[in-house]
């Protein structure tokens, strides 16, 4: 089996991507006019993940940046520093944000291929968007559609656990 490849980005390219990510997070945090809390949360989840896919964990600069994002994110989520605002799209002690940040931080610390995290970055937020749409638009009397959506949610878990097991055991 061929190893997963990491996109090759120069250190300068990494700096540009990190600056864009920081600006993006600020916009999502403070632009309540254009983004609902739900949209901001899902965009943060998926687009931050997309940007992280391009950061090589072998670069200490990228790892330090991700550690900083994880630490600041956890401090905001758990409101450990009262001067910092909490995420507008998360609750105090939000387990979803906490687990997401810890997994990403651990992954970069371990220098594992970030591509393995793609299901977390994309399947989870897209499942939430589809689920929200379906709960509003699908009639309750079509139970097979709801069963299908539940199965698709289960596949999200399998799509993450399978590669994780291969990476750690294989």
Automatic annotation (TrEMBL):
The chain crosses the membrane at residues 12-30, 58-80, 147-169. Keywords: Membrane, Transmembrane, Transmembrane helix. This is Uncharacterized protein. It comes from Perkinsus olseni.
